[in-house]
Protein 1
Amino acid sequence: MLKIFSSMLALLFVSLVVSAQPAQVSFDSASKVFRLDGGGSSYVFGVNARGELQQLYWGGRLGAADAFPAAKPMPGWASFDASYTNTPQEYAGWGGGLFMEPALKVTFPDGNRDLVLHYQSHAATTNGFEVVLKDISRPIYVTLHYAMDPGSGILARWATIENRGTDPAMVEQAAAASWALPAGPYTLNYLTGRWAGEWTLNQDPVLAGEHVIESRRGSTGHQANPWFALQAGEADEDHGEVWFGALAWSGSWRITVERDQLDGVRVTGGFNPFDFGYVLHPGMPLETPVFYGGYSAHGLGGASRLLHRFELEHVLPRASSAAGNAPGAEPMAPTPKLRPVIYNSWEATEFKVNEAGQMALAEKAAALGVDRFVMDDGWFGQRKDDHAGLGDWYVNQEKFPRGLRPLIDRIHALGMDFGLWVEPEMVNPDSDLYRSHPEWVLNFKGRPETQQRNQLVLNLARPDVRAYILAFLDKILTENDIAFLKWDYNRNWSEPGWDQVPPAEQKQVYVEYTKNLYGILAELRKLHPKVEIESCSGGGGRVDLGILKYVDEIWPSDNTDPFDRLTQQDGFTYAYTPQIMMAWVTDSPHWLNKRTTSLQYRMLSSMQGSLGIGANIDNWTPDEMAEAKRLIAAYKEVQSTIVQGDLYRLISPLGGSEFSASETVKADKSQGVVFAFIHSTQEVRGYPTLKLKGLDAAAEYKLSSIEGKARAGTPEVASGAWWMNHGLEMDEGFRGDFQAAAFRLDRK
Ligand code: GLA
């Protein structure tokens, strides 16, 4: 009776929601089918006759009146596979003969390891549902959270796992969600890399069995990124069905893509179960990260455009979240504010920073039109190189005898704001901090402390370490007028011991470390609402939708070679918006590849993201200064289109392509920006005509050059239809090695 009443209440609530935001979430109490609609997609699941929560549909948006019959479990297969394993469950417990990846695996103190989760109850929320599952006999409860973004149709899913019994239970595996797709074929797209070689797009057919992408490193990692996209059959950049997802977690994570014996595909993601263990004490729930999933009928390009918009509108901190929780704070800005054009001194000076040197660079940076001057590593403790100083966050007296104040004042007088590099989670054994707190590092008692870059990882799971880091960062930000922190993290874990807690709980370090990292970032942003933060981890080692709730930008790679950056930036944008993709112009020949490129090529490569200068501008000639100044000014005029517009990959730079080109179009279609690059012209081949995309066919657009020339006779003004169908042709002289051109189109 109570149950019927609660369903009726839920229905009533849903219909109230529906009247405000049409056909967004609904529950049919007769068929026990849940449905969520947003953007161009629908997501449907239901309670089957056994009581399991079964996925029914994920794909293009269905008609508002279309009804689903009740969920019907899949049959078993001969005597070897039970219906339980063949049925795509929303969140399957490991038990009952499950051979697919479980969402949850638990061991109870009496040795029982069987967990079968059945529907218990649900409640509707503004944009979704909270559905409660319970084990068939034990008091383990799982609340599944569903929140559908009405604009993009991207669905956020996560779980809260709770023990309502009296004895603790051990969670050995906990996913945020499992997603099911209809039978294939599919191509799995995923991003891999290494230091200085991040953001490689891999495209593999989904074969029978399991494909694992993961990090066991304690953080997101350069080697794989928690994002996937599954392309159906013939889908390509612009056409066809693509299902995609991204896990919001900066600790060890895992995503598995399984093709089962009946060719169904399931994707499960969450905490990495490797070396995982979480003691579920009664009354102390475990919350998983969020796993976002989305659908596009417009190919990989459509999928990345949806993700970019979602990140801009719903994930990244916005101007107003900076204004904070203060009473009377400004209403939320629709998108985050544009990144200031920065200068960073790292490649120019490395550790040799001092007041006079930084001031000289600042004068030059200001003359270029830079908005923010960032001092990198080397300013603190006894930091002369990477052997000492991490952990001692006081200003080095030899380098800055008067403190940071005079430098910051000068930078302000030059019309820029000031940013500072920190690496809060690390310690060098040669530091006062390590000498007084050797017990603060991740380590197993009596075992080696493996150093990488001469440094060890502080155990952020410890409350005293958390408090120390928050206190020193708060002090630096309180004592100095700092607009920005570049938050670095330059190694992965080894010996991840935490002997402060009982042995059974020590593996919780994977969860508690990351939650405390998020906690510190959130607290800092609250205490210093105007301060912006960049996530850097020796380049792109910590990029995911978890950290992106707390940081404004990303350092994608220590590799700033402008040619390498073209493929890296292309890979990055499959998952992440160009708004956060910092891109510095550095010196030539490049320190990594020894490649020589023109300043103009380096500028245009970096202008595809959020622009910065990282060269030793002390050595730039007046001509180079003038050229960079002109292009920085031209960039600022179109920056919002480039970094917050809709991105179209016109010619992919992948596979050693001779040419590459991209286009971004402002959301209201009033402006487009086109970049065109040549790797090496061969056999006098001319540049392909660029058939532009995403413009308003009926509107007139005026073409202007940012750099380079269009073919003689190209109309100055033509319709969107003309630019999209006839296309934009390059000047015949656009040939050679490492050449670049850029154009803007403005609606008349
Ligand atoms: C990492 C960063 C670099 C620089 C150095 C400083 O490698 O990615 O940009 O800040 O550390 O040590």
Protein 2
Amino acid sequence: MSDSMVTRRRLWRRGAMLAAAVLAPLVLFAVLSWHGAQRRQRGDADDAARSIESHVVTIMTEAREAAVQLVPLTDLPCSALMPELTRRTAVVPYVRSLNVIDGDRISCSSALGIRSSPLTKFPGMPAHASDHAWATVVDSTPAVPDYPALAIGEPASGGRAVLAFVDSRYLTDLMHAVAPAGAFRDVELRIGGGAPIYASGEPPADAGDLGAPLAEHRFVAAGMPIVLRVYGLRSQLFAAWTALLQQAMPVAIVLSGLLAWLYCQRQRNFGSWREQLLRAIRDDEFHVVYQPLYGVSVRGCHGVEALLRWNRPDAGPVRPDVFIAAAEQSQVAVPLTRHLLKLIAADVRHWNTPPGFHLGINFPAEYLSDEHFPADLRPFLDAIADRQCQIVLEITERTLMKNTQQARLNLDTLRADGVKVAIDDFGTGYCSMSYLEMFPFDLMKVDRGFVMTIDPARGDAIVLDAIISLAHQLKAEVVAEGVDRPAQFDYLLARGVSYMQGYLYAKPMPSAEFVAWYARAGQQPFECGETAARAPDNVIGPGDAHPTRG
Ligand code: C2E
Ligand code: CA
Ligand code: CA
């Protein structure tokens, strides 16, 4: 898989994770609000059903009571019974009329008097009304035809029964009041086996029209089984959802912002340095830039120093001094250097440099004192053998070297193999004089700090002069670092410095740029000093993307 594909895939993954962090609370709150709205709607329906239930029980119990009290009087003639029927109809709440059934006819009625009507006139009435207690809904009553009523029958002796009619309007009004049409779709009440009563007054056109009930109560009233169903309105559910969403969304938005921020923070500080660096190696986030070295003897580019760069896809470049120090402290310096060698080997294959071209590589102290170091380096040396580069090991003392004896042995082995050793950052706190005693070396790299002390007006830089003279006495060639002004160049040249490294000659550049630069300018004589520095061709070097030093 190509680098760009890996990067793109990673960016996609991170984008998806970020989107998930933002969306998760919003979706969660939306779903919770939806369930909350459903629960609230069901709760409201249940409350309504409970209220209707208690009223239905009261109405039916009153009517049944009125009928039961009349049972002992049913053998009286209708004329004697009438005043009592009328009186009770007036005083018992909800009852429209009280009647006596004799066989298959209503023989006496508080509404119609002595007139006898066959039961068949009232569809839904049971055929044997005097057999047992019953209740049903009928479409009409003797006094109010075509208007439904609740009929409650109580058996009496001699094939007679008492029948109480309750106006169904009581029931529909009750259902309306408790479960209004704006809040609920409809309420259905089934008493015994009779036709259902609807709050809307109209049975639905289609049986499934009302959908599933929000609440269903089954109970017994006046000895009759009752089923009560409350049906919800979809618009009410959405209104409840919207109301809940309005309450929940500000919290959800804050939460999703917080999650997104936490995710970004976590990405930034993902795991420890160790994890981050190892992951970056795996994900191929490193590349190498090469800074040309001016060689006085060849009056042009005599070599390069390889400098590692880490460009994080999500956070941009990381300063080398930061990640190198972190790698050294988190025991990743060795795997990182192995990775660096692989990157260099891949780059060097495309170069067109002459034999003996210096290739300076920075090695951490930990690696130098590792007994496997020379063997580890072998595949790299073999891989670039074709180019016949002069490998220069740059060693500095950033972390304490644990096994100096082993390091010395390793350097001896490698030097015998033709590798050169440079003491890097000489003169800084990093690299003490003890290194000179301890390790064999060929080059001494004088730190930029000393080069900066060159003052053309004063004409000398005492410590720098002493370092250069010390190096010469130790038979080491001197590399001056950070040479970025012609006056420094002239000064160092006059004191026998062999190599200059600095922005005056060239900045660090990626391998492909270096190849082009080397073909164009690297092999040209660099006319040093004040006059040369004014010639633009000689000072240019491709810009370094590196953020730390200017
Ligand atoms: P160093 O080994 O002393 O590398 C030279 C540093 O000086 C580089 O900084 C380079 O960009 C900078 N430099 C060169 N010429 C000039 C100049 O004229 N002016 C200024 N201001 N700076 C100049 P860089 O690349 O930031 O590296 C910093 C340090 O990080 C290096 O110092 C080295 O100690 C470490 N480092 C970089 N790459 C590697 C690596 O691959 N392995 C190890 N172990 N350390 C590395
Ligand atoms: Ca170096
Ligand atoms: Ca250095």
Protein 3
Amino acid sequence: MSRERPGFGEPRYHHELIDSTNERARELVEEGAASGTVVTAAEQSAGRGRHGRHWTAPAGKALLFSAILRPLSIRHRLLPLAVPLAVAEAAEAVGAGECGVKWPNDVWIGERKLAGVLIEARPPEWAVIGVGLNVAIGPDEFPQELRDTATSIGGGADVEAAFAALCEALDRWVGAEDDTVLAEFRRRDALAGREIGWTGAGEGSGLVEGVDADGNLVVRLADGDRTALGSGEVHLKLD
Ligand code: BTN
């Protein structure tokens, strides 16, 4: 069967040190780089996280990965849910314990964050899928403020093996059928059944019921009403 396009990671541009792999991938988009192109780095000086946060990792111990996807179509409607599923599978394939997903797109082991995803997009033209996956970071190598909340695959896991596993998993999950993505996200959902609060686009609190068909987070409020949160500007707080 002929393939629609080369898989993720073809070509790959690796840097020992770069400001941000997402930033470099965006430049490559402007230069006309093909879908599937990936930028990786051993270290970033200005790694970007969600909500304008900074993303840091000790050199050579995390997978710092940005992939170009273009063009975007209706098949990519649930991309923000599909990507953490790929990351979770890749992490497990190289030795992580069972991974959960925390809406919209963090990957957790237990109560700790293993990986974050930052998707920057100009629909319908392109998306840059940024992934920061902690692979071999020792507990005392995280900055003090993350020591209670972050984790790493550990156990001698290898960044290159994680790279290969992530490319393979993205090939399967990006563009997967909506029903397949939703079923797997619900199976791994780390927030379902938990009390949360949120700020940003309005604020409130309630009990998480799960994700709806559009990938929004459905929360039951104290008065019994339901609300659906979009990922855009919502900041979650966990009880
Ligand atoms: C989050 O805040 O959880 C998302 C973090 C995403 C970090 C990754 S590291 C590789 C890529 N390049 C960046 O500048 N950010 C993403």
